[in-house]
Write a structure and sequence with these properties.
two-stranded antiparallel sheet, globular, membrane, lipid-binding
């Protein structure tokens, strides 16, 4: 058995790593959206967040490792999309540091073109990524949806919404569209929110171009 991180955001970070190219396949804001949604999904699955009038609301007290419950509790009601967007780049830094401190990854600072700061991520044990990918693949193709591990179901939902080709190439997203929809329904409102945020960004970029 290979140990994997317990937190859903940490798992999604590792699933965004391309083992063949030995680098992150997704970075910046889009990775941050997926990680924020993963944290929201974790809280939703654990009962610490509920949905009220299509917006997240704090419910059962408990651990709040990324501070999202505190943010939501201290704010007026806002959409899931808002909370997916908020502090997305900071979320990448937080989860990356968490994984580095835990010994899951190595991070080397560098400068692109000698100017722009960047971080080169290397996964220490590729078997961890393969194990996570195996769980997601099993959720997509295996047992009835009701019996799938909740984090594996969420990993598929978030990977599809965030267009993580390391987990779900476009052809697989099309081929398994119905199954993905069923797994997404099990995982709560955050994954659909990611899809809407990314679609809005893509439309804005197309309009600007």
């Amino acid at each position: 058995m290979v140990d994997v991180p317990e937190s859903l955001p940490a798992r999604m970070f590792l699933l965004a790593y391309d083992l063949n190219k030995k680098r992150m396949a997704v970075s910046g804001s889009r990775l941050g959206y997926v990680l924020r949604a993963a944290a929201l999904t974790e809280l939703y699955l654990d009962g610490r967040l509920i949905e009220e009038r299509r917006k997240p609301k704090a419910d059962t007290p408990g651990d709040d490792p990324y501070g999202l419950v505190a943010q939501i509790s201290s704010s007026r009601p806002r959409s899931w999309q808002y909370w997916v967007r908020k502090d997305s780049r900071a979320m990448v830094r937080t989860v990356r540091a968490e994984l580095a401190d835990g010994g899951w990854i190595r991070v080397r600072r560098r400068r692109v073109l000698g100017v722009f700061p960047s971080h080169q991520v290397t996964v220490r044990d590729p078997r961890v990524v393969k194990t996570l990918w195996g769980g997601a693949s099993s959720a997509l193709r295996g047992r009835p949806v009701a019996h799938v591990n909740s984090y594996d179901a969420a990993a598929v939902a978030l990977a599809a919404a965030g267009e993580l080709k390391t987990v779900l190439p476009r052809a697989d997203r099309r081929r398994h569209k119905r199954r993905i929809a069923e797994l997404t329904a099990r995982s709560g409102p955050a994954a659909p929110a990611v899809r809407k945020v990314i679609q809005a960004n893509n439309e804005a970029a197309a309009a600007a171009g």
